[in-house]
Amino acid sequence: MSRWLDGLNPEQQQAALHNHGPLLILAGAGSGKTTVLVSRTGRIIDEKIVEAEQVCVLTFTNKAARELKTRVTAKLGAPAKKVWAGTFHSFGLMLLKKHYQAAQLPKEFGILDGSDAGGMVKELLSDFKIAGKQGFDTDSILEKMSRWRETGKKEASVDEDYEHAIEWLLPRYQQRLKRLGMVDFDGLILKPLELMRSNEEIGAAVRNQFQQVMVDEFQDTNLMQMRFVKALVEGHRNIAVVGDDDQSIYGWRGACVSNILDFPKLYSGCEVVRLERNYRCSTEVLALANAVIAKNTERHPKVLKPSKVQAVSGFLPEIFVYENEVAESESIAVEIQQFMKQGRAASDICVLYRSNSQGALLEAELRKSQIPYRISGGTAFFDRKEARDVLAYLRCSLKPHEIALRRILNLPARGIGDKAVELLESFCNDHQIKFYHGLKRWREAGVDDKAGAGIDSFLELLETLPGRLFGNALKPGDNLVKFFEGIGYKKSLEKLGTNAVSIANRWRVVEIMASIMDRSLERNGATIQSLENFIDAMELRDALEEKDADVPKVQLMTLHACKGLEFDVVFLMGVEEDILPHRVLGSDISEERRLFYVGITRAKERLILTRARQRRKHGKWVDAPASRFLIEAPPELYVEHQGSRPVNEQRRKAMVADLFKLLDGLG
Questions:
Q1: What's the pTM value of the predicted model, to 2 decimals?
Q2: What pLDDT, in 10s, does the model give residues 427-463?
Q3: How far apart are CA 382 and CA 362, in angstroms?
Q4: What mean pLDDT do residues 467-477 have?
Q5: What confidence tier does 154 reach under pLDDT thresholds 50, 70, 90?
Q6: If we measure between CA atoms, which residue out of 54, 46, 35, 49 comes closest to residue 78?
Q7: How many CA atoms lie within 13 A of 189 on its CB side?
Q8: Are β-strands 305-306 and 318-324 bridged in parallel, bridged antiparallel, or unpaired?
Q9: Is 296 helix (H, G, I), strand (E, B) or coil?
Q10: Contacts of 176 (CB under 8 A, 6+ apart)
Q11: CA 52 vs CA 81, 255, 288: distances in Å
């Protein structure tokens, strides 16, 4: 038997032994899908089914890709390092760098992230007028524009303001990208797809290079990514996808659950393997999870079963019903304290909620109780102004592009006003040159000497920054922090901050960015090329790996942020109608139910659901009925408490002992 099958259950072995043709691995929550991916990848290389460099594994985070390569390399050795593993966007970036001429891009093209794309859309729309319409929501425009590009739509299909706006905007947006020599996130998928379709030679070369393609978290793919995968495996059809339709929770950002539901129809002869053995949750938690998700009708049928190594926890999931949201937050803080007194590490406890606004009251209670906590929000960190400023300086010190240059040209203030920028813009347009080259010719553009001196100083900073990072015995990150202090950036934050805490938090972002950069350079080498790769990774938005990740803290996060994680103890707040399912955001009830299911299956041992009878909305107390998802669940699968947990004798004695200890201290 292959060494790659050691420790796998029969279903996992079946998936790992698949060699050629389409394969759908339906991996239920906690069923060991990463182990299967690692085993299959290692085995097909080890047994010479394919060469390592012919394997492509597409993931949704670079962290997941690194984990896979690390685990395969640990067992297979050096050949595994030739496996290509990364995100769809990273793969697209790799192809565009290789074929930039065919893609009609400059060699040093830039990447336009979501925030800068929003800024560009806002600027372009300032020239668009429509009767009776004062303004457009930029996020909505970007989302709808993405759907247009995904489907190839060119003209408005209905008489609606946003449709007319996008019809006018889209060609101008794409023209601006081309003029700037930039690619946005959608373009990192669409342009390589267009290349493979329109250029037969490139398409054949890419397909020949990657003879085995695997896709992780397939239920999260959108139409654009599905088309990309189809183009990549056209001909050989060696495509293995891993996912769980029951955990498809990102429809609001374009994910199509139909991709995984229809996969066996799309690829005739597809082998389907169901991984239903759960290695995470207790029997009691699984019983509730299965009952909840069974109410969804459009799904691949599967039932999670506890693995033999799991013992019955003896604790049914609990539901606490409180008078109001204040009592809910207070009680959760008390419950967390009790779990920590029983020996649970703070990091083994998680509180989940449907939207970030629910966490504010709980945060106040945790602070009051001196319970350490961390709010996990994934990529939100990189949307902080300070993080984007740091990234813009780094980018412009190596390969400047207009968006980043304009962001930092007068940051901190160096006397370069709007008039100077307008003159430079006009000069660059007239002479058909890039903004960076126009800066060097500021005198010809008619910019005054004061602003010109600021431009010269700015350009010198950019030119010397890489040398400053690597020019002494200090870590590059320490040098980066010194650089930002030296140019007066910290002082500029003091003008923006309302108090000392706010200023410190803003500056902390700069320090964290420096720390993240150091860890990347330590892993890949302290070179200019490694710095460039780091900038690419940041622009592609790897999730933040905080420096103090090993400090035990209670985890607070939204249900959308918790997928893939697990905790001994899970609290799920606000299980009420209008919150879960959400009144505004939850138009797809099946997806809201999947979201609830994902939250339940994060719990290894203890699951505590909470709801309030009343919540304050618009200054008034409003009744909050229980979520339909709770009402649907068989009552024998959980225990319900009205208010706080009943005090048993053991806990009563502990509370008395704590009181006497406090009184002794006062005496």
A1: 0.81
A2: 998 999 999 999 999 999 999 999 999 999 999 999 9
A3: 25
A4: 91
A5: confident
A6: 46
A7: 21
A8: unpaired
A9: coil
A10: 120, 124
A11: 8, 30, 42
How many angstroms separate the CA atoms of 244 and 229, rounded? 18
The average pLDDT across 17-45 equals 95
**Residue whose structure tokens are 């023209």:** 175
- Token pair listed for 82: 């030739």
CB atoms within 10 A of CB 325: 24
DSSP 309: T
- 586 touches 592 (CB < 8 A): yes
Paired tokens of 432: 């058909």
Catalytic residue numbers read 33-34, 216-217, 247, 602
- For 199-341, where are the alpha helices, taking DSSP H only? 200-209, 223-233, 258-261, 263-266, 283-293, 325-341
For residue 532, give both structure tokens. Answer: 């460039």
> Residue 663's pLDDT is what?
57
Report how far apart, in Å, the C-alpha atoms of 416 and of each of 31, 184, 439 are. 58, 28, 11
622: which 2 tokens? 């409003």
In three-state secondary structure terms, 432 is coil
- Mapped onto helix, strand or coil, the DSSP state of residue 637 is helix
- The sheet with strand 271-275 has its strands ordered as 84-87, 55-59, 212-215, 239-243, 23-27, 271-275
| Percent residues over pLDDT 70 in the chain | 91
